[in-house]
Specification:
The protein is an alpha/beta fold. The chain is built from 16 helices and 17 strands. The strands form 4 sheets. Strands 10-9-8-7-6-3-12-11 form an 8-stranded parallel β-sheet, with helices on one face. Helix 10 (about 275-285) links the parallel strand 11 and strand 12. Helix 1 crosses helix 2 and helix 4 (about 105-115) runs parallel beside helix 5. It starts with a helix and ends with a helix. Iron/sulfur cluster binds near residues 12 and 19.
Length: about 450
């Protein structure tokens, strides 16, 4: 169970030496309670403190890693019910299922699509994470052939789904050292599947018909030595799945119920695409660590990727880009210098509009700690003085050419201060909305 800051404080040395990076033991205790620090940062913590605090700060949902070294997909380790409380840690892995009873040539094309899929948004590359190989044929050879092809073609982590133990072991042998996820150990085969998971050092899914059976099954698997387990509780419909997911998460986080303290896998089986998107989105929101789709369709992936990115960004840390000069097109010596903040959404909107205008320019991103233009100005992070200092630091003013600077229309009030700080520069007040930047750029470029 989580400890309060005061409970942790009582176990610390109370010397306030500051070596942990904060000035007092109390401040460090508060950070530990919020899971924003590691006890290892205090070199003077007693063995007793390490034992007690270490056990209490263990994430209530186990970390599971799937896939080959370098391409591992971590899931679990979550600590909160709601994203606004802190942050969700490991984004839901999206997996595409492939049945082994179809032509390998057709499947190879689809696997290539999975490998190549990439949605670029707000500076991130959003991709599919895992491939599930389904032993529809119930035979060993087609299963192993597809396992080999899927792993070789995509390089991704593989989920081995089969009830045939011979096929499972053959698949595990093929993927030795690549940590595939076994689907699944059930109350009927737990010992045999656990033995294979241990032999090949692979995480496994525990699948049972009810919550009680699932808890009993994971307890059995843990006794056998399994640590990396994923939960699969089949539901009749998405509403029931949502209810199960919520009960599991609550049991793990609020009641520290270890048998359900593992990440969850959900399968999307809706026949029509619209229902498939709705079901997958539901699981993504609450609380699937893996969502398996039974089809590879771009129109299905787009909303899921965007939803996942939005849910798994840290609400306490705005997404930022590096503060520096970004040349757009091939700006010459007379090119405009457009100034904006390092809030990534602002950056991508402004850079996109400049790019679309076809007018080459330099874009200077000022460090506002991830705040947008108006918020940054209100917080004193996007002042005239700061903009002038960033322009000077860029060195662009030392080069020959016209020195023309565009500041956002929403902060026209800083133009005087910028002018004062940048003798020799012409300061232009741009439009308020990024969408009006294109016409503005064209007019200015023609001057
Ligand atoms: S390093 Fe340890 S003893 Fe020193 S202030 Fe931090 S918590 Fe206290």
């Amino acid at each position: 169970m989580a400890m309060t800051g005061l409970q942790i404080f009582k176990l610390l040395p109370k010397t306030n030496c500051g070596e942990c990076g904060v000035p007092t033991c109390m401040a460090f205790a508060m950070k530990l309670a919020a899971m924003n620090a590691d006890l290892a940062a205090c070199p003077y913590a007693s063995e007793e403190a390490k034992k007690i605090i270490g056990a209490a700060s263990k994430p209530p949902i186990r970390l599971v890693k799937i896939g080959p070294p370098g391409r591992e997909v971590p899931i679990g380790n979550e600590t909160v019910m709601f994203r606004h409380d802190k942050t969700f840690v490991h984004p839901t892995a999206v997996a595409i299922a492939f049945p082994d009873n179809e032509s390998l040539t057709d499947l190879s094309h689809k696997l290539a699509e999975v490998r190549e899929y990439c949605l670029e948004r707000a500076g991130e590359q959003l991709r599919i994470n895992l491939v599930l190989v389904d032993n529809f044929s119930e035979e060993v050879k087609p299963f192993v052939d597809l396992v080999k092809t899927a792993a070789g073609s995509t390089g991704m982590g593989i989920i081995l789904r089969t009830t045939n133990l011979e096929a499972l072991e053959a698949g595990l042998k093929e993927l030795k050292g690549k940590r595939p996820l076994i689907h699944a150990a059930t109350p009927a085969n737990a010992e045999a599947v656990a033995a294979l998971a241990l032999k090949y050092d692979a995480p496994l899914v525990a699948r049972a018909a009810t919550l009680d059976e699932l808890a009993a099954l994971t307890t059995r698997l843990a006794t056998l030595g399994l640590k990396e387990i994923v939960l699969d509780l089949p539901a009749d419909n998405p509403a029931a799945a949502l209810q199960y997911n919520t009960i599991i998460r609550k049991a793990a986080l609020k009641n520290a119920f270890e048998p359900l303290g593992y990440p969850i896998i959900n399968f999307v089986t809706a026949l029509d695409d619209a229902s498939a998107v709705a079901d997958a989105s539901t699981y993504l929101c609450k609380y699937a660590s893996i969502v398996v789709l039974d089809r590879m369709k771009l129109e299905l992936l787009l909303p899921l990727m965007m939803l996942r990115q939005n849910i798994y960004t840290d609400p306490q840390k705005p997404i930022q880009v590096d503060p520096r000069v970004y040349p757009i097109g091939e700006p010459g010596k007379d090119a405009l210098l457009v100034v904006t903040t390092n809030f990534s959404l602002t950056y991508f909107m402004v850079s996109g509009e400049i790019e679309n205008s076809g007018v080459p320019a330099n874009l200077l991103v000022v460090d506002t700690e991830g705040m947008s233009v108006l918020t940054g100005w209100a917080a004193g992070k996007f002042s005239g003085e700061k903009v002038a200092a960033a322009v000077k630091a860029s060195g662009l003013g030392d080069q020959p050419g016209k020195h023309r600077l565009v500041i956002p229309g929403y902060v026209s009030q800083i133009s005087g201060e910028v002018e004062e700080g940048l003798p020799g520069w012409e300061v232009l007040v741009g439009p308020g909305e990024a969408s009006d930047l294109g016409p503005f750029m064209k007019i200015q470029a023609a001057r």
